[in-house]
Amino acid sequence: MAQLRQEVDPGEAGLDPKVLDRLDRHFAHHVDEGHLPGYLVAVSRGGRVAHLTTYGHRDVAAGLPVESDTLYRIYSMTKPVTTIAALLLVEEGRLSLDDPVARHLPAFADPQVYVGGSGEEIRTRPAAGPILIRHLLTHTAGLTFAFYHSHPVDALYRAAGLESSVPPGADLAETIDVYASLPLQFEPGTEWNYSVATNVLGRVIEVVSGQPLDVFFAERIFGPLAMTDAGFCVTDEQAGRLAELYGETGDGRIEPIPGLPLHGRPRFLSGSGGMVASAHDVHRFMELLRRRGELDGTRLLAADTVDLMTRNHLPGGVDMRAFGSRPAHDEPGNEGVGFGLGVSVVIDPARTKTATGLGMYGWSGVATTTFWVDPSRDLTVQFLTQVRPRTSHTLFQDLKRLVHEAVAV
Fold first, then answer.
1. pLDDT value of residue 394
2. Residue 34 confidence (pLDDT)
3. Residue closest to 396 by CA, chosen among 361, 375, 374, 369
């Protein structure tokens, strides 16, 4: 176990401590009003932690406080980790971004694209081209999520038992076969739709590496980066540090809800959203990205590979809002934001209508966790709590605004 610690005074790092105090008060108010159980926020400049605050509780009923070594379900913040795993295999020549997925997962050999209709009357046609590995990394494969309720293919996912993205009791390989049996929403490579694609990528990693996903992550990423608490489950020793998961009630307050089954190795290893991690782990991962593939003398990826990962790859160079009104596209702050390989990336700061820098990249999780790297200001930021909101909220926009107001030089 390793704990994140403040390493430098904010002023020495070019940050205004008065603004950072205002940031802390802002989020403490959310806790005091019962909208968050507690939180951790950390702001680093040049790799040194210049602001670290914990407030509130990791378990409200038990009265257990948020501490710097508290563990969190990071859900979709798992996706950038899976991306790094895939890029390791690309650099080794064992995988290519332009490989057809079917080369590694034969169930995807004959993808069908939605044409019209719904339910049993749905009409499809053969895809004009294969799904490629790069389509999985950029969410342009035509896959979707069952919970969107915005397209007839979403309904087919629900009918297939994919409400939580995995059929009850299935492992990763079995789940991927279900995905492959369903139509694509669009021709691969032509649109963006946030989806189960990273679970498919996780299975590709298993097949290509010959290792279960959790073993590959542990040996190739967590170990080399000293991400000492990261994984797909918690040990008995770690269990007391795991934060309780909460959901929003109708009045915006919170109540405990079931979370990922982290006690014991899960049957389904989700590269899309299965990880648990501490603030120290997230900081180490962000540092790998900020330093373009190297950390403490260990180089995982070439700098050019990280640069490729953190550039916009959406068709036509557009942002995520350009592909219609699906729920993922309409999230606050998506205007002016493109998508790289496993991370969002700011391509037009003015259009985001929030305080962002050109090229800023990162990703968030459904339990209100987020991280970003801002190369233009040499900043890394993380915010960790455990609340699954009912609707979109402005917490992350507020965080970005307050952090960037704090940048003095």
1. 87
2. 95
3. 369
- DSSP 8-state secondary structure symbol assigned to residue 366: T
CA-wise closest residue to 142 among 104, 179, 90: 179
Write phi, then psi, for 83 (nearest 5 degrees): -60, -45
* Residue 332 banded pLDDT, cuts 50, 70, 90: low
Q: Do residues 301 and 88 lie in contact, with contact meaning Cβ atoms separated by under 8 Å?
A: yes
Tokens of 241: 């540090």
β-pairing, 387-388 with 246-248? parallel
The Cα–Cα gap between 247 and 364 comes to 17
Q: How confident is the model at residue 330 (pLDDT cuts 50, 70, 90)?
A: low
Q: What is the DSSP string of 243-255?
A: PPPEEE-TTS-EE
Q: Do residues 233 and 276 make contact, with C-beta atoms less than 8 angstroms apart?
A: yes
* Amino acid at position 36, single letter: L
Q: Residue 216: is its pLDDT beyond 90?
A: yes
Cα–chain center distance at 111: 26
Q: Is 96 left (phi over 0), alpha (psi -120 to 50) or beta?
A: beta
Picking from 49, 43, 40, the residue whose alpha carbon sits closest to that of residue 407 is 43
- pTM, to two decimals: 0.97
The answer to whether the Cα torsion of 279, 280, 281, 284 is positive or negative is positive
**Dihedral (Cα; 200, 203, 205, 209), 10-degree rounding:** -160
Q: What is the 8-class DSSP label of residue 110?
A: S
Contact 152, 109 (CB under 8 A): no
Tracing tokens 């299965």 back to the chain, one arrives at 274
